[in-house]
Structure formats: C-alpha cells, structure tokens
Write a structure and sequence with these properties.
The structure holds 2 protein chains of 2 kinds. By secondary structure, chain A is of the alpha/beta class. Chain A is 36% helix and 27% strand. Chain B contains 26 helices and 23 strands. The chains are: A alpha/beta, B alpha+beta.
Chain lengths: 253, 781
C-alpha cells in the first residue's frame, strides 16, 4: 500500500476576468503517492499547470484543501510555503529559469544553502555529486547563458533535487528542448523516480508521458481519467506507447 | 497624433519615473529660484534702505580732537565730494544685556531723523520713530541679535564716564552698521542722556582714553564713477581723513559684510542645487537606458510597424522633457510664496526684512539653461534607439547577458544574502554606477557641509582659520606695561597653566593709502604664517592673501604704513590668515607699531590648559587689576554667535534633508526599474525557497553596498575638493587657506545617514517582491 504524500480535496481555482470568473480548476479530489511518477496530460487550457502550481502552494487555491504532512497548505503563510520549497518540494520549469548571474554549480548550491540543517561543505559535496550525476560536472563554472538548453535543464533538475525533496514538481520540463536533450532529461527523471523520487509532471509530450507510473487526464479543470502504468523500461517502450496512445484516444486527446 | 497617443501611453506606463523626475526637478527649480531671489532681495533691501536713509557713501569714526576744521574742509572741498557732514558720538567699548556681553566700538548719538524702525513683531518697517525720553535707547538689529535683547529689555552701556542703563524703546534700521556681522554700532539715545554722558566722559577723559568722537558722512559727487573703496583711498590720499580716523565704512563694504553669511550659505546651497541637477541628469540617463532595455521588443515592434527612429525618439524626448518642464514650473510656483519667508531667515544677521521679489531674469536664464542641458542629455541618451533593429528586437528581444565578473566573490552559506547581493552587483555593475555617482555627490556635499559646521564649533578649526581661541579675554581700560602682563599671567597660572596667550591692539591704519585693519601683536609668534614668517623685526609686517591680491603685494615688497601722525616704510615678511575684517587686514609687531606712534595694547587673551578654570581666572584678574582691565570668561560658549551656528545648522539641515529626500526618490525610482528587470530572478528565488523577507533584505543589502561604495568615493572627492570648494566660498570671510580637518564623525555621519537611507528605502520599495508570484514565471513565457 503506497503512502499518500499530498492530497487535494475539492480544489478549485478561479480567475477574475472582465467582471466575471473563469473557473480553471473545479472540485479536484486527488491523492499523490510516495514513489509515483505521476504525469498530468490534457489539452491546452485544461488547467494542468494551474493544478501543478496550486497543489505545490505556488499559487493559492480559490477553494478546497491541499493536505501535505497533515496540514492544509492552501492557507499557509508565505514563510511556511518558502520553507516547504527549500526542504520538501522541488521545481522544474519549462524555461529552466536558472539565475542568470550564478554559475551552474551556484545555481544548484544556493537552494541547498537555505537548509540550515546542512553544512555548507555537505551542500557543496551534494552539488558536485549531482553535477556528476547530471553529466554537467565539466560545466560547473559556466553561466547559464554559456551552456545549451539541455544542459541548463539538467542543471535545473539538479537544483530541484539538491535538498532531496519528497515531491518533485515538473512543468513541461522538455517543452523547450530538442529531441536529444528531451531524452536525456527524461532519462534523468526516470532514474530519479526509480531511485525513489516522487514526481508530479505536467506535459504535452507523449514521450514524457511514457515515463509515468500513473497518468492523469485533465479536462475543463477536472481529472477525468487515470491510467496506472508499471515502472518504465526502455525495452517495453513500444507496447507502453500503444497503451498510452489508446488511452489518450479514449480521452479524446 | 500618433506621437501624442504613444506619449500618453508611455506616461501612463511609466508613471513612477515621470512623477519622480517631476518631483526632483520641482525641488531643484524651487531651491534655485529661492536662492537666486533671496540673494538678490537681501542686497536690494539694504541698498533701498541706504538710499532711503540718505546715508553717505562713506562714514568715518574720528576722535573730535583729530577732526580739525581744516581737515573737514579739505574733505568738503575735495572735487570727488558732493557734501560732507559730521555729528557727535560717544564711544563705548562694551555693552551688556541680561547675561550677554559684547565688547566692540559702539557709538552713542542723539536720535537722528530719516531712519526707520521695526514694528512690534519685527515684520514690517515704521517710517516714524517716536522721540526718546531719558533712559530710553534705540538699538539696531545687530545689537538685538548679539545681545539677544529686544524692545522693553534693559541694556547697560559701558563708557569711560561710567555705566548707563537704558530701556530699549525699539529696533531701528541702521543700514550701514546695523548688521550682526559688523562690529561697530550706532545707537540712538535722548539728547538729555547724550549731554549727561558726554559731560561725564569728558570729565574722566585722559590723553590715552577719550570717548569724544565724530561720525563723518561723506557723499560722492554725482557722476563720480569711482568704486567706494577707490573713492575712500583717493579721498584719504588727498585729505588723510581715514588716516586720522579709528575706522571707516563704505556702502559697498557694508553690503559685503552685512550679507556675508547669507552669501556663504546661499552660495553653498546654489552649488548644491547645481549638483542636484547633475543627479537628476544621472537618474534620467538611468531611466532612459533601463526603459530602453525593458521596452526593447516594443520599440522593435513600433519600428516594424513603420515608425521612424526620429518619431520614436521624439516620443521619449517629449516624455522626459515634459517631466522636466512640469517639475520646473511646479518648483517655480511653489518657490514664489517661500521667497520672503526664506529671506527673512537672515533678518537677525542682516538687520533687514528681505523682499518678496522674484528674480525673473536670473531665474529665466537658469531655467533656460536647465532645459537646454536636459534636452541635450535626453537627445544624446536616446540616440541609442537608432540602433534598435526590429528583427532582433522581435525575435527574442534584448535579454540581459551577464558576463563573468573579475570581482567574483563566492556564494557562501554564511552571509548567503550578502554574497548574493554582491554577485548581483558585480555581474551587472553598469546598472549601479549611476546610483553610486549619485551617492558620492550627496555624501560629498554632506561631508562638506559637516566640515563647514565644524568650523563654527571647533577650537582647532577656528585656530586653523587664523583666529586665536581663548577662554579668558581681557579688555584694557588703561594702557598696561610689560610688568602688568607678567603679573597677569602669574594670576591666571594660579588656576590653570596657560597654553597660549596674546596681547594685541586692533586699529585702522593706512597701507599704501588704503585704510586697512591692522593687528598689533606684542607676541606675533602666536599667529602662524601660511607663507614666509610673521613680523619679528620692527620694520616688518605680514599681510593676508586677500590684501596681497587686492593691493598687488607679495613677500619682500616694501610698503608705507601710516599711523595717526607718522608714516614709515616696512617690508612684507609673510602671509597669514585672518577672519578679521573678512581677511582685509595686516599684522605688525608692537615694536614695529611704535615706529608710527601706536603704543597701546588693548586686548589680551589666554587659552587655558584647564578651560573650566577660566571663570575663576577672569574673576581673579578683575579682583587684582580691576582699575586697568575688565576680564571675562568665554569657556563653554560657542565660538561664534548662536545665530551663525543656527544659520549654518539650517544649511546643514537643508542639505541633509534634501539628500535624504533625493535618496528616497532616487532609490524608489532605480529600485523599481531594477525590480522590473529582475522580476524573473525574484520568481526563481521564490521558487527555490527564498521568502519575501530574505529577498527584500538581499535587495536592501545590495543598495547598502552601492551606497557604501558611493560614500567611499564621496569621501575621496571630499578629501580633494571640499577644501577647495570651501576656500573659494569662504574667501568672503577672509579664509583662503582653510585647513580642512576630518574627524571620524565628519566621514561616518554622512556615509551612515545616506547608507541607512538607501538600505531602508530599498527595503521598503522592494515590498513589491511580495506581489511576485511564482506562477508569473510561467505566465511570462
């Protein structure tokens, strides 16, 4: 029985627009489990990214609850949310969003330094390990503008996991990458997941969806479909792709 | 029409920058307009009163016995002279009101017609002065300021005939000697009192001491084009009138002395205003360049739509010029009602109510210059817009590119925010250079004005200006001899060792025909020479730099010095500095002075190792030598009058206040721009776990670092230029070689004030960080 890390109850998110309200998320009930690689798919405007940011506390829900560690984080204070971000959650963005005047090494280490329980030397060691693991150790002193998009995204992944988060949120992490870099990044995420990292990823990319152990389909702000999958293995990619395609067709994607 | 539409949109979108520039220009225009108008009004008020009272172009104080009929007639008949008149005066060398005492030459005369007086609350003039009864006195403003007394107060006047107490009936407008900056004073008493005091003085008169004086008023012939000082010199060479007098004053000199402090303060403020304008230009430059960076894509789009580079530039130029224009006009409108109020700040010093006239011509010229320079700067800065390529702009814009900095401090866990702030600075130095320049200008001025403030209230600084600071001062009633000096020192030394002492006389002598204040020292070595040496032999004198420039004299030159009866040749042995007579003075030893018939020492002063003992020492001197001298203690008092201290502190307040105000506007403007430029980074930092407080603190630390660096530059600038700037301004009071002394507070206080302001203001302005949501990172893409 998998342990629930984070759950949403009746989660709603609306935006004011022209005097009215646009309901992006409507009454979402969801549980995310330890060790899962959960991938959310859906058409543009279905509310995927909004759900990811509302669940992670980066955006405030209009109604409902997001329970993490037994607490509803929807109403949590900014300090509490900041603390969750540098200790329990990790984030990967489509546009990488590395700090442009910090080297790759520093981009990875800075969030680690925020965790006062870890010494600076331990953070530096861990950053070096991650640079090695991501295959960008030779670029550690480079600025983001001096490396490729794929290398930037690998740095962003390392940054997101420097503090060993319980849950990694990824918003279209391969959206801005070429085919080769996409595969490298997905391999890294898969490897992280297979070593125990829980991931919630939003994507349009079917290749990314194949890495999931659980697929969710979002439509008009509601979770309308779910497909559990076994752990990813490259050998089974063809059959997995057929299964996912069929499911997506059923979802009218 | 399209230009107007874009202009409106630009102003709407950049309200902050627009308002900031309007505000800054408003402050500058307001202060320059006030300074220019007040400066002119102060002088005009005195000039108008001199004309209305029909005062002569020159006045001389001369002992009655020396004003022979022949001398007076020679003055009257001089071809340069329209008319001359003289009237009797009784000289007093000390006056007291309450606890305040002032020792100088005060001339009591019968009430004269033609003068005006202040109303009850000193806010307007009254044409008619009621006649005086016995025991009543009219005093000029300078006396009221120096002795801190007013209508209804009692004032004691000390003459050789005795002490007389009067009740002040009012303050009259004495346009020639009425200011607090001139030592001589004319006071009006009733005819009855005058006769009584005159007789009493006559009874006690000796060969050495006489109170019987005449005030001679001389009027230039109509059409005489000579300057007042030239007129006085020519008249003296022809008649010897100033050689025979104890002192004389011309209208021009009086205008100079009367407005000396207002001139200094207004000059400093004027220079400060000009530098504030430089700051506005820097701020504007920063605003245009960051605006261009941020609007790069939009500018490209406009170009792609067919807007010419000239049209786009015109929109930006108009936008900034409109802000400057609005600010200037608003500043002038606000200045108008403040001109009189600000001018009247100087009333206790000058003795005149400043008018409320606006110096339209001067202001118009300054405003035109401001507009011209601003227009040129905007034109040059916006020139870079010409290079924006529409293709490059639309296909990705002009993103920030950070380069490796040579000053790459590591990011460390301890002091994480500080090291991140430093990285932000070093990786994008250009953004902060303008801010640093602004801080350095502000700190330079704050330090300069602090140095000026220190001069007012520091013993060492006063001595650096050539004055002797003493805690125990003595006025001799009778001429003392050398033995008396020794005996006096023994009495003083019972209470405290003497650090420095002087014995001197001050009187007006002619130097190459010019009437100049002469300082006679028994021990000239007590004064330090700037060049050469002080006069040690009886054929030597030392002059000030100003005298050297005025009379074209240098060390080694031979000059003729005339006393009352004799003339002798002397050699200039050195240059010294003095604030007496605003630097128009020379110095001679007592032995040298004896050659031209000057034998008496009139003042003495002691600087004590234990200043607290000064009161007791003064009392002991009075007890032991009461018949020949009067001693008083000045320990613990301000070196200069409270009024000057107040005026200088007011200027300090204005400069510190404006600096803080500028810091606020500059920080909020620059911070807002940088905030917009760094919005994505702020979002990233939030996403990786930084909270709002930490990010705001990082922002504030960064500006604190910039302000510290700027303060360091400001301190270096001050080291090199404060002295030069103050010297050029303080020449008015005779200081040509100011020894600028830096104390720790001189450097620390301005730097700390400005850095603290930058830190706090940056922290407050960065409150916007709260509003940056991480989801904006996604929405921006």
């Amino acid at each position: 029985m998998k342990q629930v890390i984070l759950s949403a109850n009746g989660l709603c998110k609306s935006f004011a627009h022209n005097g009215g309200q646009i309901h992006v998320l409507s009454q979402i009930d969801l549980e995310l489990y330890e060790g899962d690689f959960t991938v959310v798919m859906g058409a543009s405007g279905s509310g995927k990214s909004t759900m990811l940011y509302t669940l992670s506390g980066m955006d405030r829900a209009t109604a409902g609850q997001v329970i993490y560690g037994g607490e509803n984080i929807v109403d949590a204070k900014e300090k509490k949310l900041a603390s969750l971000r540098h200790s329990d959650f990790g984030f990967i963005f489509q546009q990488m969003h590395l700090v442009s005047n910090l080297s790759l090494f520093e981009n990875i280490a800075v969030p680690g330094y925020l965790n006062k329980r870890k010494t600076a030397s331990r953070v530096r060691e861990r950053a070096e390990e991650l640079l090695e693991q991501m295959g960008i150790a030779h670029l550690k002193s480079h600025l983001p503008s001096q490396v490729s998009g794929g290398e930037q995204q690998r740095c962003a992944i390392a940054r997101a996991v420097i503090h060993n988060p319980r849950l990694l949120f990824a918003d279209e992490p391969t959206g801005a990458l070429n085919k080769k870099s996409t595969t490298e990044v997905l391999d890294l995420l898969t490897s992280l997941n297979q070593s125990g990292q829980s991931i919630l990823m939003v994507t349009h990319d079917i290749r990314a969806a194949l890495r999931a152990t659980r697929l969710l389909y979002l439509e008009d702000g509601k979770v309308v479909g779910e497909l559990p999958l076994p752990d990813y293995s490259p050998e089974e990619e063809k059959s997995r792709e057929a299964q996912v395609n069929a499911w997506l067709s059923a979802m009218e994607w | 029409m399209e230009i107007v539409t874009l202009l409106k949109a630009n102003i709407r979108g950049k309200k902050g920058s627009f308002i900031s520039i309007v505000l800054l220009m408003m402050i500058i225009a307001m202060s320059l307009a006030i300074v220019l108008s007040v400066k002119e009004n102060c002088k005009n008020s005195q000039k108008a009163m001199l004309d209305e009272t029909n005062i002569g172009d020159m006045a001389a104080f001369i002992k009655t016995e020396r004003l022979s009929d022949a001398l007076f007639q020679s003055v009257e008949n001089n071809p340069l002279v329209e008319k001359a008149e003289h009237y009797a005066a009784i000289v007093s060398d000390q006056a007291e009101s309450g606890e305040n005492l002032d020792g100088n030459s005060w001339y009591l005369t019968k009430c004269r017609s033609g003068y005006q007086m202040y109303n009850e609350d000193v806010t307007a003039y009254k044409k008619k002065m009621p006649s005086l009864k016995k025991g009543e006195i009219y005093i000029p403003q300078g006396v009221s300021t120096k002795l801190d007394c007013g209508k209804g107060d009692k004032i004691k006047i000390f003459t050789i005939g005795g002490r007389y107490e009067f009740k002040i009936k009012g303050i009259f407008i004495e346009p020639l000697f009425g200011s607090a900056t001139i030592g001589w004073k004319q006071l009006f008493i009733s005819d009855e009192d005058f006769e009584e005091i005159y007789l009493s003085c006559k009874e006690k008169e000796t060969e050495e001491m006489s109170a019987d004086f005449q005030i001679v008023q001389v009027y230039k012939k109509a059409g005489c084009t000579l300057s007042d000082s030239r007129f006085r010199r020519e008249l003296n060479l022809a008649t010897g009138i100033t050689d025979q007098s104890s002192g004389s004053m011309t209208r021009e000199l009086s205008m100079h002395y009367t407005n000396i402090y207002s001139d200094i303060i207004l000059s400093v403020l004027m220079v400060f205003g000009i530098f504030l304008f430089v700051i506005v230009l820097i701020v504007m430059g920063h605003s245009v360049s960051t605006g261009m960076e941020m609007e790069y894509v939009n500018l490209g789009i406009l170009k792609a739509q067919g807007f010419t580079k000239n049209k786009i530039r015109a929109v930006w130029e108009l936008q900034y010029f409109l802000a400057i224009f609005t600010g200037t006009v608003a500043g002038l409108v606000i200045a108008a009602p403040l001109v009189q109020k600000m001018g009247n700040i100087f009333q206790p010093l000058t003795g005149f109510l400043a008018g409320d006239d606006i110096s339209f011509l001067k202001i118009a010229l300054v405003v035109l210059l401001i507009w011209l320079v601003s227009g040129l700067v905007i034109f040059l800065i916006t020139k870079r817009m010409d290079k924006i390529s529409p293709v490059r702009a639309i296909s990705g814009g002009h993103n920030d590119i950070y380069f490796d900095s040579r000053i790459k401090a590591p990011i460390c866990q301890r002091g994480l925010l500080g090291s991140l702030a430093l990285r932000q600075l070093t990786s994008c130095k250009r953004r902060y250079i303008g801010t640093m320049a602004i801080v350095s200008i502000l700190v330079f001025f704050m330090m300069t004005v602090t140095i000026l403030g220190n001069i007012v209230d520091s013993k060492s600084a006063v001595e650096a200006m050539g004055a002797i600071y003493t805690e125990c001062d003595v006025n001799f009633k009778k001429v003392p001899d050398d033995k008396t000096f020794e005996a006096m020192e023994k009495v003083v030394e019972k209470y405290s060792p003497i650090e420095k002492s002087y014995y001197m006389a001050g009187l007006y002598c002619s130097l190459n025909g010019e009437e100049i204040y002469c300082q006679v020292y028994k021990n000239p070595k007590v004064i330090a020479a700037i060049k050469g040496r002080v006069p040690l032999y009886d054929n030597e004198i030392a002059i000030t730099e100003l005298i050297g420039e005025e009379l074209n004299l240098k060390i080694g030159d031979k000059v003729i010095v005339a006393g009352v009866d004799k003339k002798e040749e002397y050699v200039i042995s050195g240059i010294f500095q003095s604030i007496n007579d605003t630097g128009m003075t020379f110095m001679i030893s007592l032995d040298g002075a004896k050659r031209i018939g000057i034998h008496e020492i009139v003042f003495a002063g002691y600087s004590l190792t234990i200043p607290a003992k000064a009161k007791e020492a003064a009392k002991a001197l009075n007890d032991s030598f009461g018949d020949i001298l009067e001693a008083e203690s000045s320990a613990g008092e301000n070196i200069m009058e409270d009024t000057y201290v107040m005026a200088i502190n007011a200027m300090k307040g204005i400069i510190f206040g404006f600096s803080i105000l500028f810091a606020l506007v500059v920080v909020s403007m620059i911070c807002s721009k940088i905030f917009l430029q760094e919005k994505i980074n702020i979002g990233i930092y939030k996403a990786v776990g930084f909270n709002t407080f930490q990010l705001r603190l990082q922002f504030a630390i960064r500006f604190f670092m910039v302000s510290l660096a700027g303060s360091a530059v400001g301190a270096v600038l001050s080291l090199f230029f404060s002295g030069k700037m103050l010297n050029s301004i303080l020449r008015m009071v005779g200081i040509t070689n100011l020894a600028v002394r830096y104390t720790l507070p001189t450097v620390i206080v301005p730097a700390a004030v400005i850095s603290a302001c930058f830190f706090l203001f940056a922290f407050f302005v960065s409150g916007k960080v709260r509003r940056v949501e991480v989801r904006e990172l996604i929405m921006m893409e």
